[in-house]
Amino acid sequence: MAESAGEHWDWPLIRNRCLIEARRVLRHDQDAEEAVQEALVRIWHARSSCQTPERPIPWCLQITHNEALRLITRRRPCSALEEFGGELEDLRASGEVDRAAVRLDVDRALEQLTPQERLLIALRYEHDRSHPQIAADLCIPEATARVRLHRVHKRLRHMIDDAA
């Protein structure tokens, strides 16, 4: 009798490695746990399509990475003031009010972007991904990734200039 794919995989090891990857992308334990849970369900259902069942971890990590990116797009952006919290008073005291004001303008501009546009910015600057990597992550041509990122930059620039 042929054994099904994934029957003898080390699921605790896969989960731990996926959790590390999700934390790397998301930087918050609760978000990482949510992404891993979703990723493991997808991995389980698609386990027969793994092309390297003897070494499933890279495949599982890619699914986890993609799920973490999906979570970024679904996440509601928090308000800029919430993000600063008590930090704003510290900034005033240290003379960095102008810098804080610029950061607030940038945060407000980012909140006005669509989830897809925020994802592009997050991939490029928060996760330091190259254009080819962004294209691969989003399953789009590299030229499309470049054009979309260029348009988002232009839009952000106008929003920030209008706020100033």
Task: Write a short abstract of this structure.
With 164 residues, this protein is mainly α.
Encode the helix/strand succession as letters: HHHHHHHHH
Number of strands: 0
Radius of gyration: 20 Å
The CATH architecture designation of the largest domain is: Orthogonal Bundle
Query: How far apart, in Å, are the first and last alpha carbons?
Result: 70 Å
Structural class: mainly alpha
Query: What would CATH call the class of the largest domain?
Result: Mainly Alpha
Q: pLDDT under 50 segments (min length 5)?
A: 76-84
Q: Give the proportion of residues in helices.
A: over 70%
- Proportion of residues in extended strands: under 5%
Number of helices: 9
The named CATH superfamily of the largest domain: Winged helix-like DNA-binding domain superfamily/Winged helix DNA-binding domain
Average pLDDT, rounded to a whole number, is 81
